[in-house]
Automatic annotation (TrEMBL):
<dbReference type="InterPro" id="IPR035906">
    <property type="entry name" value="MetI-like_sf"/>
</dbReference>
<feature type="transmembrane region" description="Helical">
    <location>
        <begin position="68"/>
        <end position="93"/>
    </location>
</feature>
<comment type="similarity">
    <text>Belongs to the binding-protein-dependent transport system permease family.</text>
</comment>
<feature type="domain" description="ABC transmembrane type-1">
    <location>
        <begin position="69"/>
        <end position="258"/>
    </location>
</feature>
<keyword id="KW-1003">Cell membrane</keyword>
<dbReference type="InterPro" id="IPR000515">
    <property type="entry name" value="MetI-like"/>
</dbReference>
<feature type="transmembrane region" description="Helical">
    <location>
        <begin position="105"/>
        <end position="125"/>
    </location>
</feature>
<keyword id="KW-0472">Membrane</keyword>
<feature type="transmembrane region" description="Helical">
    <location>
        <begin position="237"/>
        <end position="258"/>
    </location>
</feature>
<keyword id="KW-0812">Transmembrane</keyword>
<feature type="transmembrane region" description="Helical">
    <location>
        <begin position="12"/>
        <end position="33"/>
    </location>
</feature>
<protein>
    <submittedName>
        <fullName>Carbohydrate ABC transporter permease</fullName>
    </submittedName>
</protein>
<keyword id="KW-0813">Transport</keyword>
<dbReference type="Pfam" id="PF00528">
    <property type="entry name" value="BPD_transp_1"/>
</dbReference>
<keyword id="KW-1133">Transmembrane helix</keyword>
<feature type="transmembrane region" description="Helical">
    <location>
        <begin position="137"/>
        <end position="154"/>
    </location>
</feature>
């Protein structure tokens, strides 16, 4: 009986936390279908009194939504792909090769994870500006090309791959490149899926760095473009909620694609722990 009460209390707490987390997104979704006059009204309701699609239909007229969306999607996909590959490659080397200084290198990578990102903004900006990479997508891709978190995650995962499997492939004449691409990567699909979700989310919602490095409006990302709705004398909340609602879709799609492997990887880590 005591265990059942504990379970009910835990489920109730999780339900409260879930509702608290999801409610702002639900409010944003319904507000995207409200006219601005209703959004600004003192008497608020969750469901719109007057449903309208004007906020969605007029997005392209208010700012170049399609271009901003395409820019963000392209950059997020490239950054995610590059980060996954470099993280897997470095993780494989650190997990399966023995060489002097290996632990020191891994410790240095862990140390980079402890440095606040804000501390590196000024020197990083100065460096990329000196290289002439302002208004260049390379300035958005290169800083994310090597991820300390990704290397750490993949190193820990690949450390569990049996050495006997790799040795058998080497005895059969397989090259190290072949082993990495055809054996190690397929065996690491679960952690790769988890890293893909995290990295795509970080790249998609990044605001400050694109704001600093990209001045050309046609090259700007969606996170920065959403500030267009904040005017000098007011904010177009309806358009902002509509654009933000659409901007959530790619993140949901990526999560749904990798969901099963992400959950499987988390479950395997829990069992291992």
């Amino acid at each position: 009986m005591t265990k059942r009460i504990q379970t009910l209390v835990l489920e109730a707490l999780l339900l409260i936390v879930g509702i608290t987390t999801v409610f702002p997104f639900v409010w944003m979704l319904f507000s995207a279908f409200k006219p601005n006059s209703e959004i600004r009204a003192l008497d608020q309701t969750l469901l719109p009194r007057e449903w309208t699609l004007d906020n969605f239909l007029s997005l392209q007229d208010k700012f170049d939504f399609i271009r901003f969306f395409a820019n963000s999607l392209g950059i997020a996909l490239v950054v995610t792909g590059v980060t996954i590959y470099t993280s897997c490659l470095c993780g494989f080397v650190l997990a399966k090769y023995r060489f002097p200084g290996r632990n020191a290198i891994f410790g240095f990578i862990l140390g980079t994870m402890m440095i606040p990102w804000a501390v590196t903004i000024i020197p990083r900006y100065t460096m990329f500006a000196a290289w002439g990479l302002r208004d260049n997508y390379l300035s958005l891709i290169l800083p994310a090309a090597m991820s300390g978190f990704g290397i750490f995650m993949m190193r820990q995962s690949m450390d569990d791959i049996p050495d006997a499997v790799l040795e058998a492939a080497r005895i059969d004449g397989a090259s190290e490149i072949y082993i990495f691409h055809r054996i190690v990567l397929p065996m690491s699909r679960n952690p790769i899926s988890a890293l893909a979700i995290f990295q795509f989310l970080w790249a998609w919602e990044d605001y400050l760095w694109p704001y600093l490095m990209i001045d050309n409006e046609k090259m700007q990302v969606l996170a920065v473009g959403l500030t267009t709705f904040n005017g000098r004398y007011g904010t177009d909340y309806g358009g902002l909620f509509a654009a933000t609602t659409i901007s959530v879709i790619p993140v949901l799609v990526v999560y749904l694609i990798f969901q099963k492997r992400f959950i499987a990887g988390a479950a395997a880590a829990a069992v291992k722990g």
